[in-house]
UniProtKB/TrEMBL annotation, chain A:
Signal peptide: none annotated. This is Amino acid/amide ABC transporter membrane protein 1, HAAT family. InterPro entries: ABC_transp_permease (IPR001851), BCAA_transport_permease (IPR052157). CDD domains: TM_PBP1_LivH_like (cd06582). The keyword Transmembrane helix applies. The chain crosses the membrane at residues 6-29, 36-54, 60-78, 90-109, 129-158, 187-206, 264-282. One of its GO terms (cellular component) is plasma membrane. It comes from Faunimonas pinastri. PANTHER family: AMINO ACID ABC TRANSPORTER PERMEASE PROTEIN (PTHR11795:SF445), BRANCHED-CHAIN AMINO ACID TRANSPORT SYSTEM PERMEASE PROTEIN LIVH (PTHR11795). Keywords: Amino-acid transport, Cell membrane, Membrane, Transmembrane, Transmembrane helix, Transport.
TrEMBL record, chain B:
It holds the Pfam family BCA_ABC_TP_C. Transmembrane segments: none annotated. This is Amino acid/amide ABC transporter ATP-binding protein 2, HAAT family. Belongs to the ABC transporter superfamily. Keywords: Amino-acid transport, ATP-binding, Nucleotide-binding, Transport. PROSITE patterns: ABC_TRANSPORTER_2. CDD domains: ABC_TM1139_LivF_branched. SUPFAM superfamilies: P-loop containing nucleoside triphosphate hydrolases.
């Protein structure tokens, strides 16, 4: 029973991890940018929901779409006016600039939000439902469900809608996409905006189940990176599965080796995955 | 000659500091099929890239009465200038149908879209059979058909075609040439770059010959076929 409970916790948390990685995988696959500020954007989404809730009394799940939209605008403008300079340039340039961005965002967040722990704590935060004797925390379940729905929405966008087709076309063949009417600056900005929006949604959900501080970005970036590699860059559901894999691995590690090791596990997985999964499997967005 | 659709005058272009085209003059009239031939490395592909605005150029470049030079490729495309690029450049990990849809990416008329689909599938029944297959997994001839189909989905005014026949069986080449005459009768103008000079001359109204970045000959197909230099260099006589 304990194992079933642990697995359930891992799966629910893993879905949210998958959502965190989804935006990073999208941006990586299409723009060839490994966004080291992705975790910082997750953090911003978390604080946006926190302030809407704690400051204005908006229910966190109503604040979520607002934060998501806000992060879309943030990401769009960032790409349009800053990152467009480095799109498809050498990987080192994009790493440097997004690393710098991460430092700046984290620093400004510390000034604006202070370094105190925050949690988004609505009245129903502690509610559970019991299924076959397994306790399912309501908020975790909602976060998981939203992650799945958003992954489905991204899948639909990429595979069934003209904008998504243009996104895939551009990642496959930039010149041909331009010859057929795609404006890459615009498209890259929209893609990065979507990536930031997904980060924002993930951050809002994360804040309802874990502590927020301005410094959570770095480890969430790392986790997203690992999951994007495990899940691949082309299929949103693959990314969610990758997240579930990491979530379950973390929970099991915490159970058998103690919670201090659960943070180490994702990096252990990274090493394993880099060895067994050829890097070219990634470039298939 | 009919009304001018594409006017190229004293056009120079190159890659970075390397000049490739020198003072190229070329015009295409509305409704014409114009062939552009020349040996490897003459600059034919470079000229098409300059016209499509993929690379920088200097001189005069007018399409349908408007100056193209300040425009990016996507804006040139929006005006009806559509290229079937060298090496096809399909979206290899998308299906045939998705490639065709990408051709129509910027089209607003959804009803005309279905008509275009039907027309393309009628011209290339093979594409209809393979519409769910990944473009990158098709044979060379099928890919060329897909590239042509994608261009037609854009409802072009001027089609720039680069090496349509490269690596294709003669039957397929004949079939594609037929399609060209067919779409010309629908009001599409064509600038055809070809290594297969016989094939190009069999459908074109006029032709240009390029050597090392310059136009060295032009005229009606009959004139070119009787030009001793052209006969020797390209027609093997
Ligand atoms: N991307 C590039 N960068 C630098 N130089 C290039 C590039 N592409 C072509 N060139 C050079 O420009 C010249 C003209 O090449 P281009 O591709 O236009 O010839 P072409 O007439 O299309 O030849 P082919 O019949 O073999 O396709 C060649 O000397 C070539 O080496
Ligand atoms: Mg060429």
């Amino acid at each position: 029973m304990l194992l079933a409970q642990i697995l359930t916790n891992g799966v629910l948390l893993g879905g949210l991890y998958g959502l965190m990685a989804l935006g990073m995988a999208l941006v990586w696959g299409v723009l060839n940018i490994v966004n080291l500020a992705h975790g910082a954007m997750i953090m911003l989404g978390g604080y946006a929901v926190y302030y809407l809730f704690a400051g204005l009394g908006v229910d966190p799940f109503l604040a979520l779409p607002i934060a998501t939209l806000g992060m879309f605008v943030f990401g769009y403008l960032l790409q349009r006016f800053v990152l467009n300079l480095v799109v498809r340039s050498a990987m080192l340039n994009t790493l440097l600039i997004t690393f710098g961005l991460n430092v700046v965002i984290t620093y400004l967040a510390q000034l604006a939000f202070s370094a105190d722990f925050r949690t988004i704590n609505p009245g129903y935060a502690g509610s559970n439902i019991a299924v076959f004797g397994i306790t399912v925390p309501l908020v975790n379940f909602a976060a998981f469900a939203i992650a799945i729905v958003l992954a489905g929405a991204i899948w639909l966008l990429l595979n069934k809608m003209p904008l998504g087709r243009a996104i895939r076309a551009t990642s496959q063949n930039l010149i041909a996409a331009r010859l057929y009417g795609v404006n890459p600056r615009q498209l890259y900005a929209v893609t990065f905006g979507i990536g930031a929006a997904l980060a924002g949604a993930a951050g809002g959900l994360y804040g309802t189940i874990a502590h927020l501080t301005p410094y959570i970005g770095a480890s969430l970036t790392a986790k997203s990176f690992v999951i994007a590699i495990i899940g691949g860059l082309s299929n949103p559901f693959g990314v969610i599965l990758g997240g579930i894999f990491v979530g379950v691995a973390e929970s099991l590690t915490a159970l058998y080796f103690g919670p201090t090791y659960s943070d180490v596990i994702s990096f252990g997985l990274l090493v394993v995955v880099l060895i067994v999964r050829p890097a070219r499997a990634l470039r298939t967005a | 000659m009919s009304e001018t659709l594409l006017r190229i005058e004293k056009l120079s272009a190159g890659y970075g500091p390397v000049p490739v085209l020198f003072d190229v003059d070329l015009t295409v009239g509305r409704g014409e099929i114009v062939a552009l031939v020349g040996s490897n490395g003459a600059g034919k592909t470079t000229l098409l890239r300059a016209v499509s605005r993929v690379i920088k150029a200097e001189g005069t470049l007018e399409f349908d009465g408007a100056d193209l030079l300040p425009l990016p490729p996507e804006a040139a495309f929006m005006r009806g200038l559509v290229q079937v690029p060298e090496g096809r450049q399909l979206f290899g990990k998308m299906t045939v149908e998705e490639n065709l849809r990408m051709g129509a990416f910027r089209r607003k008329d959804k009803s005309g879209l279905n008509e275009s689909f039907e027309r393309v599938y009628e011209l290339f029944p093979r594409l209809k059979e393979r519409r769910r297959q990944l473009a990158g997994n098709m044979s060379g001839g099928e890919q060329q058909m897909c590239a042509m189909g994608r261009a037609l989905m854009a409802a072009p005014k001027l089609l720039l075609i680069d090496e349509m026949s490269l690596g294709l069986a003669p039957v397929v080449v004949d079939q594609l040439l037929e399609v060209l005459t067919d779409i010309r009768s629908q009001g599409v103008t064509v600038l055809l770059v070809e290594q297969d000079v016989f094939a190009a001359f069999s459908v074109a109204d006029r032709g240009y010959v390029m050597e090392t970045g310059r136009v060295v000959g032009e005229g009606s197909i009959a004139e070119l076929q009787n030009d001793p230099a052209v006969r020797e260099a390209y027609l093997g006589a």
